Each structure stands twice: as C-alpha cells, then as structure tokens.
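writing this on my phone so excuse typos. first protein, seq and then structure
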Amino acid sequence: MNYQYIPVTQTENSTDLYRQQQMRRRRAAACAHRRRAIVARQRRTLAFTAFALVLGVILAVSVLSTSTLATGADRASTTYKYYKEVYVESGDTLWNIAAQYTDGSISEIQECITEICSINDLSRLETLKSGTYIVVPYYSSQYLQ
C-alpha cells in the first residue's frame, strides 16, 4: 500500500482554535453540571417520598391503634370505682357485705374486706354493730355523674 502525504495548511489562527476548545470544554462542563443537578433532584425526590411513606405508615398505625382502644369491648371492660354507705343489719358480716359488692372470687372479697376495714377504721376481728353504717367500695361499668 502506498500512502500519499497530504499537506495540511493551517487556515485558522491559533487563538480561534483555543477559543473553540474552551467553548467545547465549557459546554461539556455545563452538560455535566446539568446531569449532576438532575441526579441530585431525583435523589432528593426519592428521599422525600420514602420519608413521607414511612411517616404515613407510622401515622396510620398510631391512628388504628388508638381507634381499637376505643371499641365497645374495651369500653365495657372499663370500670369505675364508687363508694356506697351500707346499713348494717343483725347477722351481717364483713364477708357477706364484701361478697355482695364484688364478683364473688375469694381474692376480690379479701381485698374488699381489707379496703372496708381501712376506710371505716375497723379491724378484721371486730364484729359489726347492727344499726350502724359503713362505707363499702364497689365497681361499675356505668359512669355516674
């Protein structure tokens, strides 16, 4: 193969070449800057979306958990403590009175007797006097005003 030598004449001056190179570099830098700005904007949008999604899930869980606390089953299990003045008749014992105002379990009756004794300043061994009044605690699911 024979190669021919083609002479290249320099028609442009060197300052014009330098300016063209500078312009190409500036354009490339501007394009790269735009690409970086677009990627940064996409990352910010993705981070904000993820944050909003997590916040929405937390909010939904908290709202649902508080609404389940206010259901009818929970409201029925809510009890209020009240006090009642009871007239003691002959033959009444602390056990009978406590059993009347509790659910009937032995532990509940014993706790009620302890509370009756502390409220009325009685001892467990003391017999009740007929014709007197004692204060007895009781629980109700109804709210009385």
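second protein below, same order as before
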Amino acid sequence: MIRKAYVDGRWGQVHIRDTGGSGAPLLLLHQSPLSGAMFDPALPLLAAAGIRAIAVDTAGFGMSDPPPAPASIPEHGDALVRVLDALGLEAPAILGHHTGAMIAASFATQHPHRVVRLVLNGVPALTAAERAHFATFRFSALQPEADGSHLLAAWNQRLRASPGWTHLDAMHKHVVEMLAKNQTYWWGFTAALSHDMDPDLAAIRCPTLVFTNTGEDLYESSKRIAGEHPDWRFAALDGGTHDIVDEQPEAWAKVVADFVKG
C-alpha cells in the first residue's frame, strides 16, 4: 500500500507518496509541471524490488504548498533538507526527472553528505541552442475562458512538448495536473530555463547514474553529460517520451532499483 502524507517543509506542507518498508530509501523528484503522481506506475514495482520509494510533490506542485514567489532551483534543492529531516532520512538515494534532476543535482552539491546515490533521469544541461528551443514553448498562466478554450490550449501545449507521444491516459493525467495549477504551473519551467546546472554536475561526488530513453527530448543532452563524466553509469531505454514511467514502468523501475541497491 502506498501511503500519502504531509511533512512540514520550508514553505508549508509537503505532500509525499511513501511505499514504506525497510528497504533502501529512494526520494523521487518529478518533472515540471507535474507531481509525485508521475511515479505512480513504478512505485509498487520499486517496493517489490526492496526499495522504500518516496515520491515528493515539489513546493507549489501537486498537493504541496507553494513558496510565496517563484523559487530557484538551488532554493528548491536546499528545501529538501527539511523534507529529509521530517522523514528521518539521513542520506537516501535521490532520483530526479528533468526539472527534478536539476533539483537533485543542486541538493547533492549543497548537501553532499545527505545523498548516497544519485539518478539523473533526463539531464537538462542545455546548450544555448537547446535553451532557445525550449524557450519557444508557452510557459505562462492559463486564464480560464468562458468557452473553455483554455482547456484545449493546455492540451495543445503539452502535445507540442511531447513529440512521439502514444499514451493517451498519461497525456490526459498530466494535462489535468497542469490545469490544476493553471496560474503557477510555469514556475518550474522558468526556474529550469534560468539555471545552469553544469557547476552542480562538476561538483557531484556520490555514485551517479545518468538515465534516459532514446525517444525523450533530453536524450542527446543526457548522453552528452554521461560522456563528460566517464566515472558515472549510463543507461538508456529504447523509445518512449518524457512520459517513460507511464510507457515502460517495469523496465524503468528495474534500472532504477538495480542502481539504488548497488
């Protein structure tokens, strides 16, 4: 059973999903603009593999309280200290997906003694050209319209950001999450696009896995970063999109569990 709970964080309450158990603890940090719910298909699989998986809703997303203003990636990273303390975790493994990978890397740089292993799942260490490409996407509030056109605008926005998508249920689930935070969902994108994670990557000292899949939009970036860090491990699933946890949960969970368990 996955328990849902709240812990006190830097800006209010932080919502988590916790598989419990005595296995190796793994903190999971989601992509923007979603929540820890993106890991739901994999949580039971991680638990079955002997992992205590804890999916966190980043402040301002899912059911976690927001900061009073848009927070930076380093601020989100530092805020994890309160979450770990509330959970009684001294040094868990941490996995971050896309924006979550930035937060995880920043945390590992600021608090190296509080993370034992790191999984960077889709590494947004963007070149100038990549940053310019992602900046062309609409990242702003979705104002409700009387004719409901904002609902279609949200759908079309995610369609454009998800080339090659095939999983209709995942698309619907994640658009609903974006609409639930229609005034603030874009904060995560703004933080990610304004953050240079190269200094964080250079400072990481714990065992690290760069994990990606060939169909996702950060595959080339992830592969490039893995090549720059030959002491890190690299794994790539075939195909999929940035919704890989929905698309290939068994294969995804196996790679993660094998690395976390060493």
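The mean pLDDT is 95. thats all i got for now
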